[in-house]
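Could you please consider the sequence and fold following this short note?
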Amino acid sequence: MSRLVIPALCAALLAAACSSNSKARARTAGEETRADVSDAAAGASADASSTAAAKGAKPSNEFLPAPPSSMLPGGKLHITARPAKFRAMIDDLAKANFVFVGETHPNPDHHLLQLRIIEYLHNRGRLHAVGMEMFQRRFQTVLDEYIDGRIDEAAMLERTEYKKRWGWDYALYRPIMEFARANRLPVIALNVAREITKTVRDGGLDALDEPSRASLPAIDLTDKAHRAYLKRIYQSHPIPEGKTKGDDDFELFYLSQCLWEDVMADSAVRWARRAPEGAQMVVLAGRGHVRYRYGIPARVHRRIGGPYRVVVALEQNVAPFAGRIHDKRYADYVWITPNFQAPRAAPKPADKPAKDAGSKHGES
């Protein structure tokens, strides 16, 4: 398998950039991979009609010249079973209206990969917006003011209630946000208010007040393969406090997950319908929302159609469990990064259902 060659200086710079987070990394490989082992089994039931992986890139050891901001994250890039080079992936991503990039939230390598994809597509004149799970859509006007230069970072973080509602270290996302601001690249808040997610997780749609319910898009609960996939993840998680695992609780869990992903898809599609025809958005989200295409990608595609691609970043200590670089249904591209131990107790918002799918593993 070919490997992208990264100069020693770039590797050193990357290590320095990540050093401030290294002391917090404490989760064992076994803990980190539990949900991924569960979804490996779920992959067998993935929808056979999912978009096939991109074709045409040949294995290469050629070093890709550095993008404008210097380096790429270390690791190996695959088009399903075949190694590939970064430049060939960008050529293919440029053909898509939506590019979904799945991350492990606290992994610096994954955010560096996202930044490079955004830089490359923007420099080609292809990229029109970045959609982010990290912000709730009721704060869109605040993001607009930040991108336009009318408020500074501190005001943006305070007014979006970032620490309360997302909680992961903002330093991970700062280079992406600064690039967007410098280039007047719209950042679109995708996420649903956590008060809504929590209410539905606890009591279903009937527990919502009328304004909250009226704000929601149609929620698709019909995908049997997606249901089976989430059932395996649900069964791998500890029992939430005050609950017992049973059919009724799973239905609430499944409903809240579908609501979460349908709102993010709806947010992306609302932007696309206002944008020029064929405009491109890069969507940044936890990999649990994009792998196997069930979550945001499929729900966007059902609403608006058009070409899309899925890129998933995986750690070396996670990737082997599913052999997923061989599964075209999992993603169009898989970037395998060095081993990473996520914080054992990452900061989570008080109103977020922390034990729901993937959130413990930094994938929500």
